[in-house]
Amino acid sequence: MNDDVKGTDGGVIGRAGGGSRRTAGAGGSGGSGAKGPGGAGGSGGNVIEISGLCKRFVTGRGSGRRTVDALDDVSLTVADGSCLAVVGESGSGKSTLARILVGLEAADAGEVVLAGRPVARRPRRAERRARARDIQMVFQDPNGSLNRRRTAGSAISEVLAAHHRVTGAEARRRVEELLEQVGLRPAHARSLPGELSGGQRQRVAIARALAAEPRVLVLDEAVAALDVSVQAQVLNLLSEIRRDRRLTYLFITHDLSVVRQVSEEVVVMRQGRIVERGSTTQVLDDPQHPYTRLLRDSAPRPGWRPVRAIGRDAAEVEA
Amino acid sequence: MSVLELDDVRLAVPHPSGDRTLLRGVSLSVAPGEALGLVGESGSGKSMTLRTVLRTEPRGAHVAGRVLLDGRDVRGLGPAELRRVRAESLAMISQDPRAALNPLLRVSRFLVEGLCDARGDDERTATRRARDLLAQVGIADVDRCMNSYPHQLSGGMLQRVVIAAAVAGSPRLLLADEPTTALDVTTQSEVMAILDEQRRERGMSMIFVTHDLELASAVCDRIAVMYAGEIVEISTPERLHAAPRHPYTRLLLDSRPSLTARAPVLPVIPGRPVAAYEVGGGCAFAGRCPWSEPGCTDGEIPLVRDGDRAVRCAREEELAGELAHATGTEATA
Ligand SMILES: Nc1ncnc2c1ncn2[C@@H]1O[C@H](COP(=O)(O)OP(=O)(O)O)[C@@H](O)[C@H]1O
Ligand code: SF4
Ligand SMILES: [Mg+2]
């Protein structure tokens, strides 16, 4: 535990090596290509290896009973220091994937290997805590992860205490450091979420996630609710943090322009399955799957016109 | 004559620490059959502008200025006249279609009752018309849709039902407030195409509120860019992209990541959007503008018209050439 407290960026990276290599290739044919072009990772292993992940939700009862395969045999790998974008429409299973990865949800089948360590499907407490240190999540709505009555500073120190037993003056110093890293001022430590703008709240959520000194950030639509001008700031910030801290990102978004800007590789999900994967340039410039093409052609851009596809609504009726 | 004309509309709401200004003098006009996009970041006053037209501004709000609908000031209408104007001349489509529908009524009841009330149709005529309308907004299985309750339909289907109801009486003016923001991109494309087509076919005017400049550009004849409770630029989509005349518009265009090319660093607008009530004297954008000069904070800066475009910037003429080119990341990073 103490090693982690002192875990400087170098130390964190150091842990990547052997462990990952041991299981490299476990993603098998499902791998999204281990080494992302421009992947910052020096050790070359995969930090995330997911294979055959399945998750079915059952809702309603009696004649209203429905099952949804939120994840249906999903496999992917994310190389150390790279960013994998996951795109798809709402309900395609992106968030379920994220929630299983960080341990908020249990898979029905399949395997998750994090930094070379297989993750139990229903982990014990200590294991869950260790995982929370390795992998942190940032949500679309920071209100979901920030307590209304808790100042930004105390939200961050909570994580410092929980994962690294850092308290007192040392914690205050770390809080200031973290706030600064996400472009806030030390005075913001005393602000309640309600006193901050949407962009500032999202920065606090990012600082809080970084406080655990994770190796992986899972970002679920983390910039979707931000205004354009603020979104650009946060996207730049996330790229900078990834480079400086040599973090690995799983970046969930519905926005292909954001994919282009942040990720080296991308997987396209539809109805719980990965329908296409590859380097961001490949997938966006020369999409192979009709669904990827539809997604791309639907994105507003200069010269774009909305188009009417015939008979698509059949699939939209949920009853 | 314009279908709608807003003349120096100002709005403030009561607040414990004194009245808060939300609109600082909005002037715009919409010609017959024209679609005007109202674009800006959250809190810039887009929705509040629409609410002054519908007269649904917050309770206790002080409103000044004129809102002329076909030449008549809706601000002065009595309750009965207002109801008639709303029913005959205006239709609203909001972000959340569920808010427009009664969760306990089937789609058929919602549409048929609306048609009977608005047009005095009998039940059979109204039912036939409702079915036609649903087909026109691209619903393939009309029976199934008619028999569904709102919770049984997806957001995209519901929004099409709302569009069908909105265009049914061919009102003079459609007010659409982020109608596709809650939808997936593929559904957005479909719903926008339908809205655009229905509006054109019926020769209706529209104000389309959105934060998405590209989306507005695709379906609007002109775009008005709002910042801190006022309009800073009006232009056609083509000219807005080719040669924006206001620094904020330029930076808004540049800071959006591109679908086709990755920027080493995204150009950013420093700081955060300000609220209308935080603006002091001079240009509201001065605190974030890379081109700001001491003169920019003196006095009120007028919206200067030039044909069908207008811009509110003290340095407009000087900057025209420079703003025609995208900002490099070094200029604003
Ligand atoms: N807790 C849950 N209970 C029931 N169904 C769920 C639950 N979470 C997700 N689902 C369903 O699983 C599918 C995938 O959802 P999700 O992972 O949230 O997709 P995305 O994040 O891509 O929008 C959807 O059909 C969704 O309604
Ligand atoms: S008036 Fe001055 S500060 Fe305002 S937009 Fe123009 S140049 Fe920038
Ligand atoms: Mg989601």
From TrEMBL, chain A:
Domain ABC transporter: 48-296
Pfam families: ABC_tran (PF00005), oligo_HPY (PF08352)
Keywords for the protein's UniProt record, in alphabetical order: ATP-binding, Nucleotide-binding, Transport
One of the GO biological process terms: peptide transport
Feature: compositional bias, Gly residues: 8-42
Gene3D superfamilies linked to this entry: P-loop containing nucleotide triphosphate hydrolases
Region called Disordered, residue ranges: 1-42
GO MF assignments: ATP binding; ATP hydrolysis activity
Family recorded in the similarity comment: Belongs to the ABC transporter superfamily.
PANTHER family assigned: D,D-DIPEPTIDE TRANSPORT ATP-BINDING PROTEIN DDPF-RELATED (PTHR43776:SF7), TRANSPORT ATP-BINDING PROTEIN (PTHR43776)
Name by which UniProt lists this protein: ABC-type oligopeptide transport system ATPase subunit
Organism name: Streptosporangium sandarakinum
Lineage: Bacteria, Bacillati, Actinomycetota, Actinomycetes, Streptosporangiales
UniProtKB/TrEMBL annotation, chain B:
Compartments where found: Cell membrane
UniProt GO cellular component terms: plasma membrane
Matches recorded under InterPro entries: AAA+_ATPase (IPR003593), ABC_Ni/Peptide_Import (IPR050388), ABC_transporter-like_ATP-bd (IPR003439), ABC_transporter-like_CS (IPR017871), Oligopep_ABC_C (IPR013563), P-loop_NTPase (IPR027417)
SUPFAM superfamilies: P-loop containing nucleoside triphosphate hydrolases (SSF52540)
All copies of domain ABC transporter, residue ranges: 4-253
Pfam family, one: oligo_HPY
Membrane topology qualifier: Peripheral membrane protein
PROSITE patterns for this protein: ABC_TRANSPORTER_1, ABC_TRANSPORTER_2
GO biological process entries: peptide transport
Main location: membrane
Entry's Gene Ontology molecular function annotations: ATP binding; ATP hydrolysis activity
Keywords: ATP-binding, Cell membrane, Membrane, Nucleotide-binding, Transport
Family indicated by similarity: Belongs to the ABC transporter superfamily.
Protein name, UniProt field: Oligopeptide/dipeptide ABC transporter ATP-binding protein
Organism: Streptosporangium sandarakinum
Lineage of origin: Bacteria, Bacillati, Actinomycetota, Actinomycetes, Streptosporangiales
